[in-house]
């Protein structure tokens, strides 16, 4: 006999994405001149940029060889990615961070 998972009954009545949509709409009403960049689920209005496509292809290729396969990354992220984030996102804006400040 199938039983109802009692934890299912503890779930909230609302759904995360509908809550987010309500908050976005409230923000739009209170800040009508602000542009909103929507990164939520299902909001795909443009094709992927070429740089993203190339990076994904490269990542897939790395998975095909024992010499370049990485498996799960370290908990705090790969050093080469942290360094790239600092170099490309923070340093050009005059923000100087150490690798331990980016996670």
UniProtKB/TrEMBL annotation:
Task: Extract the InterPro entries matched here.
Answer: DapL/ALD1, PyrdxlP-dep_Trfase, PyrdxlP-dep_Trfase_major, PyrdxlP-dep_Trfase_small
| Keyword Kinase in record | no
Q: Name one GO molecular function term.
A: transaminase activity
Q: Which cofactor does it need?
A: pyridoxal 5'-phosphate
Q: Which UniProt keywords apply?
A: Aminotransferase, Pyridoxal phosphate, Transferase
Gene3D superfamilies from the UniProt entry:
Aspartate Aminotransferase, domain 1, Type I PLP-dependent aspartate aminotransferase-like (Major domain)
Give the transmembrane ranges. none
Protein known as: L,L-diaminopimelate aminotransferase
């Amino acid at each position: 006999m199938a039983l109802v998972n009692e934890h299912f009954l503890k779930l909230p009545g609302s759904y995360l994405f509908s809550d987010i949509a309500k908050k976005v709409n409230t923000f739009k009403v209170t800040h009508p001149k602000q542009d909103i960049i929507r990164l939520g689920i299902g909001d795909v209005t443009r094709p992927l940029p070429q740089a993203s496509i190339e990076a994904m292809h490269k990542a897939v290729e790395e998975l095909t060889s024992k010499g370049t396969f990485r498996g799960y990354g370290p908990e705090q992220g790969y050093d080469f990615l942290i360094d790239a984030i600092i170099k490309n996102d923070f340093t050009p804006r005059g923000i100087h961070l150490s690798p331990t400040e980016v996670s």
